[in-house]
Design brief:
This protein is of the alpha+beta class and 317 residues long. The protein is built from nine helices and eleven strands. The strands form four sheets. It has a four-stranded mixed sheet with strand order 6-7-11-10. Strands 1-5-4 form a three-stranded mixed sheet. The chain has a two-stranded antiparallel sheet with strand order 2-3. It is elongated and about 100 Å long.
């Protein structure tokens, strides 16, 4: 029996966190799922390996036992051990006929996917299946979950102002009115989950979930980049030349920005904490970047024009 490197199968390090393992599993499971790769036997085998690796590494007790086995296997290899010489007895101590309950976090049932065959390798069966190495059939009892209902996704549009403060939407579902809260800091692509508000499950299984997929509409005043906002503010020539204050819009009010004398057209000023709230930490905000654009005077009076002529003359002197 050959050792299986579950960390390598998921593409994670041996000290990977539970979150990293789950993220790697979800990414690979989507890539190699039989529904995405019909009639592809290699993808099917890869999908089986991915599920098997996740079943072990996501369970603290199984992972601990597997890590101990891996350490022994590594020492055996370093001693120049030959295939078939590794002592598996201390690891395959299960009793024939012992039942194994296998849990899955997805609604698909692996047995259905693979035509009723075992979705696990002999390696898994001997180490974790309690099959003792002698009995290779009939040793598993699968804890079958009734298939949950289908998830629904509903697009919703909100303004940037609503994204800043948070908002709510009323939905009509099966004759029932639901109020869905959209949190402050939501971005285009943010999904808001309402557990159990999707399609009903089969035979008492839980219902699916309802997801609102958010689109934040453009705002004429600001361009959003992550949690930062960018705005263009105009200032007259005299203020840029001599220095002074200009008014800058924010999501809540206008603020005064002091510009120094000789401010060049196009200069950008950073206003800390005046951007959008972070989605998961609404008390923290991004920044607002105000780009100054000169507003040239028009319809000059004769006196004003004479003063500009005088300035032009002094420049050439």
């Amino acid at each position: 029996m050959e050792y299986k490197d579950y960390y390598k199968i998921l593409g994670v390090s041996k000290d990977a966190s539970e979150k990293e393992i789950k993220k790697a599993f979800r990414r690979l499971a989507r890539q190699y799922h039989p529904d995405v790769n019909p009639d592809d036997s290699q993808a099917e085998e890869r999908f089986k390996e991915i599920n098997e690796a996740h079943e072990v590494l996501s369970d603290p007790e199984k992972r601990q036992k597997y890590d101990q086995l891996g350490a022994d296997w590594q020492r055996w290899q370093q001693r120049g051990g030959r295939p078939g010489d590794f002592d598996w007895n201390q690891w395959t101590t299960g009793r024939p006929g012992e039942r194994v309950h296998v849990r899955y976090g997805t609604p698909e049932d692996l047995q259905d996917l693979f035509g009723g065959g075992s979705p696990f390798s002999d390696f898994f069966s001997q180490i974790f299946g309690g099959m003792g190495g002698a009995q290779r059939t009939g040793g598993f009892q699968y804890e079958m979950r009734p298939q949950r209902g289908r998830d629904y996704e509903q697009p919703v549009e909100i303004t940037l102002q609503e994204a800043y403060h948070g908002t709510a939407r009323l939905l009509q579902m099966d004759g029932q009115r639901l109020e869905v809260r959209i949190p402050a800091g939501a971005k285009t692509g943010t999904r808001v989950r309402m557990s159990g508000q999707g399609a009903s499950g089969v035979a008492g299984a839980p219902a699916g979930d309802l997801y609102l997929r958010v689109t934040v509409l453009p705002d004429p005043r600001f361009e959003r980049k992550g949690d930062d906002l960018h705005a263009t503010v105009s200032a007259d020539l005299y203020t840029l030349v001599l220095g002074g204050e200009i008014r800058v819009p924010t999501m809540t009010s206008e603020v005064a920005l002091t510009v120094p004398p000789g401010t060049q057209n196009g200069r950008t000023f950073r206003l800390r904490g005046k951007g959008m709230p972070h989605l998961r930490q609404p008390d923290r905000h991004g920044d607002l970047y105000a780009r100054v654009e000169v507003r040239l005077p028009t319809d000059l009076t004769q006196e004003q024009r004479a003063l500009f002529e005088q300035l032009r003359g002094l420049k050439g002197a």
